């Protein structure tokens, strides 16, 4: 019979993953309205949006230390509150500089909660002795889809200020309901590995362990690169290169995101049957073939199929990489791997843009396939460290 304490913790942690995706997606769909309100040019908006990235990356570096000192679950709770409070700030700004400043705060909360809740999830995976990490990331994807869908529905009826204020109130209500369950019980962790919030954990990782953590971070980077690239360039590829209707083009990332969500929902079963190494290798190979199909497709329909296959392939690579980094080095490992992974999401869109100028957009998108194949190769090369 499942331990009710662990079941309650799993529900609570899953809720915070979904909340993170919900709030972030709610902000993303209002970016055009906030751009118009601030009067920012496209380049000024791009610089302002870097505030989210800068805040996230800087905070990720230090969140591992905070988790060791205060515990991953209290840090998750604190960052979730800050995330909900800061999401109301962008529509209150009236210049690109002010927008960049508040997005820096929002990015700090976003980066902090991602490291902290992944640390808590890694501890729970160890306690359950089941590879359930993909289910948490599936909740993030589902939360994002719901947040984006609701945002699209209310965009014509609510101002950005009212929409994001409502989003914040919903988030704070969810935190009030799920927070006590997150904090109520101590989480048992097997003695053969460190807790992510172990205050006695060494400040510096041993050389080989740090090297493995960086390797798993590189696997996460390869995955996040593809996600960032498809989010920013998938629709343009469909519309510009394949002459798809704008509505069809907009569905490109939705196909990718839905396939990724489905892949993550089935990730635990896949990991139990195949193990981590085979899941990494099969996922990277599938994503590489899918992206080649999507990038070089002769028609929009074939490209959409390729995007969906890519989503299925990439779905479980990032969760497995983060879980292995956390199992090796606790919250410090998760911080390193998350920073590298998030760096991949930042690197993808501009890298695709430069390559598209030098060659063509379809050729540039094949870099997603190349990195997915690299992730598969790294996964195979580190099969002993992946233990499965």
Can you count the helices?
14
What is the CATH homologous superfamily assignment of the largest domain? Answer: MFS general substrate transporter like domains
Distance between the termini: 25 Å
Structural class: mainly alpha
Order of helices and strands: HHHHHHHHHHHHHH
Largest sheet: none
- Rounded radius of gyration (Å): 20 Å
**Global geometry:** globular
The CATH top-level class label of the largest domain: Mainly Alpha
Estimate the mean pLDDT confidence: 86
Strand content: under 5%
Give the total of beta strands.
Answer: 0
Query: Which regions are unreliable across 5 or more consecutive residues at pLDDT < 50?
Result: none
Q: What's the CATH architecture name of the largest domain?
A: Up-down Bundle
Q: What would you note in describing this structure?
A:
With 388 residues, the protein is mostly helical. The chain has 14 helices and no strands. The longest helix is centred in the last third of the chain and has 42 residues, at 317-358. It is globular, with a radius of gyration of 20 Å. The protein has helices spanning 4-28, 31-38, 42-70, 72-86, 96-128, 133-154, 160-184, 207-241, 246-265, 267-296, 300-314, 317-358, 361-381, 383-386. Helix 1 (4-28) packs antiparallel against helix 7, helix 3 (42-70) runs antiparallel to helix 12 and helix 6 runs antiparallel to helix 9 (246-265). The protein folds into two domains: 4-183, Up-down Bundle (Growth Hormone, Chain: A); 207-386, MFS general substrate transporter like domains (Growth Hormone, Chain: A, Up-down Bundle). The mean pLDDT is 86.
């Amino acid at each position: 019979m499942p331990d009710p304490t662990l079941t309650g913790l799993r529900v609570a942690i899953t809720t915070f993953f979904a909340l993170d995706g919900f709030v972030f997606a709610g902000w993303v769909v209002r970016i055009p309205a906030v751009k118009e309100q601030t009067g920012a040019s496209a380049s000024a908006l791009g610089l302002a949006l870097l505030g989210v990235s800068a805040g996230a990356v800087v905070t990720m570096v230090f969140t591992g230390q905070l988790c060791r000192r205060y515990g991953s679950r209290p840090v998750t709770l604190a960052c979730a509150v800050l995330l909900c409070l800061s999401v109301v700030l962008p529509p209150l700004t009236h210049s690109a500089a002010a927008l960049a400043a508040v997005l820096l705060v929002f990015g700090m909360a976003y980066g902090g909660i991602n490291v902290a809740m992944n640390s808590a999830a890694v501890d729970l995976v160890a306690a359950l002795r089941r590879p359930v990490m993909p289910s948490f990331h599936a909740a993030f994807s589902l939360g994002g889809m719901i947040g984006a869908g609701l945002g699209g529905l209310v965009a014509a009826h609510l101002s950005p200020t009212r929409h994001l204020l409502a989003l914040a109130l919903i988030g704070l209500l969810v935190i009030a309901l799920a927070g006590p369950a997150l904090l109520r019980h101590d989480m048992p962790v097997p003695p053969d590995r460190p807790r992510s919030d172990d205050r006695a954990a060494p400040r510096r990782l041993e050389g080989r362990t740090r090297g493995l953590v960086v390797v798993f971070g590189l696997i996460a980077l390869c995955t996040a690169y593809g996600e960032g690239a498809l989010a920013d360039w998938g629709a343009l590829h469909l519309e510009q290169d394949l002459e798809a209707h704008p509505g069809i083009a907009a569905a490109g990332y939705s196909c990718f995101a839905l396939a990724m969500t489905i892949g993550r929902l089935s990730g635990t079963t896949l990991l139990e049957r195949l193990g981590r190494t085979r899941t990494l290798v099969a996922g990277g190979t599938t994503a590489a073939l899918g992206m080649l199909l999507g990038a070089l497709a002769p028609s929009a329909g074939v490209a959409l199929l390729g995007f969906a296959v890519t989503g299925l392939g990439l779905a479980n690579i990032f969760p497995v990489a983060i879980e292995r980094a956390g199992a090796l080095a606790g919250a410090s490992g998760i911080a390193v791997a998350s920073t590298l992974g998030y760096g991949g999401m930042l690197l993808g869109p501009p890298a695709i843009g430069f390559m598209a100028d030098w060659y063509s957009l379809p050729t540039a998108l094949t870099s997603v396939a190349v990195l997915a194949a690299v992730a598969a190769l790294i996964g195979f090369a580190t099969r002993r460290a992946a233990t499965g």
